[in-house]
Amino acid sequence: ALRKASSAGRGLNRVHIFISKTVIKPETCVPCGKRVRFSKPALKCKECRAVCHPECRDKLPLPCIPSCPSTPGTNKLSEGIISDFAPSERPMIPRLVVNCANEIENRGLSEVGIYRVPGSDKEQKELKEKFLKGRHPHLSNIHDIHVVCGCLKDFLRGLKEPLVTFHLWPSFVDAADIGDRNKCREELQHLVQSLPQANMDTLAFLVQHLQMIAETPACKMPAGNLAKVFGPTIVGYSCPDPAPMQIMTETRRQNQVMERLLEIPRDFWADLLCVDDMSLFPGGTPYTPDFHSAPRSMLGPINTPDMTEYANEMTRTATTPKYSTKTFHSKKPSRFFSSPVVN
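The line above is the sequence of Rho-GAP domain-containing protein; the predicted structure tokens follow.
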């Protein structure tokens, strides 16, 4: 049976598609963190490019998030939008977002004030840099779960455009102002489906994640608190460089939009992430290649003569003449391999 990720209910059941390789340059096994030495066999996922020992294949974290086609650069994150960091296939959600959210759900649901308690800025930046360089950091090795939370928030904060695009921002604000909650919900659902694909997929994933936190009493983070934390990064402002007075007036509006989005039932968000199973299992069910199999010649095996007899023949020498250093070797065999037999 295939292992399911913690986000299995959100259309993220993609598994790894392994190919075998012989290591030339030493690499690190993602699950165990140990080095894969020179000339040793290894497995590499053709989608996310994670490398592991053959015996560690079942420990490679799920879901598999395919590598994005291109990343603007680790030092110029503000120049990228969400689609620059997302896979080219659905669900189009960056690996950083999926892995951080899953780790927080695994370890952080007992933390009071999750997403409000700050973590180490240095560790957050180092973690984000590893993700943006295409690496697979071990989130389970990060002792402070607030560092993982800060990494996710910092990534969203650094985007050139929030998930709610500047073009649709006024429409989202107007929809959130509708007094009738049913009409408000219908209008917001329509606007969400009008977002670009990567924006919509990432928003649907994050809203379900935040709804889980809001429904966990131990976290003490209701929807209103989460809206204040994520309103500036998910909803944002109406333009890239708002004026000071504009920031004051739009902050309340963005929090209102975020809170209304969190009130939309989870089924709506889950349906947005439902994708065809063929995109989650490209090429069929994955398997581990057999390292011991090797192609056979159509001509049959090649017979090699006895090397001991050949070595003795080569080292057998004649008597060395007086006043001479020349050694007379026996004649070298004219044929090393016997001809294969063709039936």
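Note on the example: Strands lie at 18-22, 27-28, 35-36, 41-45, 51-52. The domain at 72-280 is CATH 1.10.555.10 (Phosphatidylinositol 3-kinase; Chain A).
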